[in-house]
Design a protein that fits this description.
80% of the residues lie in helices and 2% in strands. The protein has 361 residues and is mainly α. It has a two-stranded antiparallel sheet with strand order 1-2.
């Protein structure tokens, strides 16, 4: 096909450049030349029609058609696949949403990086201040009155923890004694039935142990209430106040760290860069100063209310403990029961702590 096409092109070129002399009547000099031109035009048209049919049958897919920038036969650098143009139109919404998601994730990453950066700077300053204080090189803000109250609070908590530990030990030992009395009373009662000659002796010993067991369970109710109240005071009320104290101490360390940083900058040169840093340090100093003063006020208020609450709670619990112990060892069952009613203590019925048969399944 290339051969025929080149032959036709050469014939057309030849025909196009051929001189056609015109006679006086306006006709061509010979009819052979006209036939040659007509034949060459037919040959070229038939060849082009065959090429067009071949392109229509076995040509490339429209999705794979390329647009060529520049003239025919140019380099492949200017080729733009039409499939990419079609895909960009089809997936424009998806690409926009993906760009939005990328921007959101990038914003979260930047925010986290800023948080980590601020935390690192703050940790460095506080560590530096802590080391300076430990080696006696840095100054420390001290509230002597508040520091003394905090130390008293910590010492009080240690002593009350010891009271709680001993009260729990007393509860465990007394519970074991009550269980032993209960078992001993059952044994005496059984022997009273099986030993006719000692029925009376075993009988009144069994009654005595059962009475002691009943009074012991009443006393256990009072002691458990005492232990529960002390536990709430120590591990909740005092612990909450000490958590605020810990926050106050951390705020004090941060305040001193930024104060020392500001003082160091004020002692340096006063150029434009340093003035900007001094202004930023002044802002951080004021922020941590406000935080320190706010937490100092919170600690003062909490220690005051804790002291009032401690006196009120311990007055009630110590009175309960004294009256219950005295009534039990005096054998005054009526006074022991009256003590529990006075403090609104309700005893659980026997077996109340055991799970039901449904819970055991």
């Amino acid at each position: 096909m290339r051969y025929h096409s080149s032959m036709a092109d050469s014939m057309m070129s030849k025909a196009a450049t051929m001189e056609i002399p015109i006679n006086s009547n306006g006709d061509s000099r010979t009819l052979a030349e006209d036939d040659t031109l007509e034949q060459a035009a037919k040959i070229q048209w038939s060849l082009k029609e065959k090429d067009l049919q071949q392109v229509m049958v076995s040509g490339p897919n429209l999705n794979e058609t390329s647009i060529v920038s520049g003239g025919y036969g140019g380099t492949a650098e200017g080729i733009i696949p039409t499939s990419s143009i079609k895909g960009s139109n089809m997936h424009h919404t998806n690409s926009s949403s993906s760009i939005t998601a990328d921007e959101a994730s990038r914003g979260v990453a930047v925010e986290k990086f800023d948080i980590v950066k601020k935390w690192g700077i703050n940790t460095y300053k506080c560590t530096k201040q802590m080391i300076s204080e430990r080696f006696g090189r840095g100054s420390r803000t001290v509230d002597l009155e508040l520091e003394a109250q905090i130390e008293v609070l910590r010492e009080t908590k240690r002593k009350y923890e010891n009271v709680l530990h001993l009260a729990r030990a007393l509860t465990n030992h007394f519970y074991s004694m009550v269980q032993t009395q209960h078992a001993l009373g059952d044994t005496f009662a059984d022997l009273s039935q099986k030993s006719p000659e000692l029925r009376d002796e075993f009988g009144y010993n069994a009654e005595t142990q059962k009475l002691l067991c009943k009074n012991g369970e009443t006393l256990l109710g009072a002691i458990n209430y005492f232990v529960s109240s002390i536990n709430t005071l120590v591990n909740k009320t005092m612990e909450d106040t000490l958590m605020t104290v810990k926050m106050y101490e951390n705020a004090r360390l941060e305040f001193d760290a930024y104060r020392a940083d500001l003082e160091e900058l004020n002692m340096g040169p006063r150029d434009a860069v340093t003035m900007a840093r001094i202004e930023a340090a002044q802002q951080q100093y004021q922020i941590h100063k406000d935080k320190y003063e706010r937490l100092r006020s919170d600690v003062t208020i909490k220690i005051k209310f804790l002291e009032e609450n401690k006196v009120k709670v311990m007055h009630k619990q110590l009175l309960l403990f004294h009256n219950a112990i005295s009534a039990y060892f005096a054998g005054n069952q009526q006074q022991l029961e009256q003590t529990l009613k006075q403090f609104n203590i309700k005893l659980k019925p026997p077996g109340a702590d055991k799970p039901s048969w449904l819970e055991e399944q």
